[in-house]
Amino acid sequence: MAVTHESCAGMGGIRGAGDLVFRMELQGYKINDAKKYVAEKLHCPVSYLADCAEMKDLREDLNIGTTQVRPNAGIGMQTKFRIAEILDIPINSVEKFKKEAGI
Amino acid sequence: MDKILTRYGDNYIAELTPEEIRADIEDGTADAADRAQIPPLSKDEMDYLYEIITCPQKIVSVVPGKEVVVSFDAGTLKLSVRNGIPLDRLQAILTQERALASDSIELCHVDYSYKPIKPIISEERQAMEQAQLLTTLPVLYGAMPNMGLYTKPDGPCENWAELLPAGKIPEARAAQEEAIEHAIRDIVFVASGMIESGADGINFDTVGASGDADVKASLEAVRILKAKYPTTGFEVGMAGEFNLGMHGQLAFDDEIIAGLYPHQQVKMAERAGVSIFGMAINTNSSMSLAWNLARVVTFAKATVAVAEIPVHANVGMGVGGVPLSIIPSADAVSRVDKALIEIGGVDGL
Question: Which of A21, A40, B31, B264 could in theory staple to B260 by disulfide, Cβ–Cβ 3.0 to 4.6 A?
Answer without folding.
Answer: B264
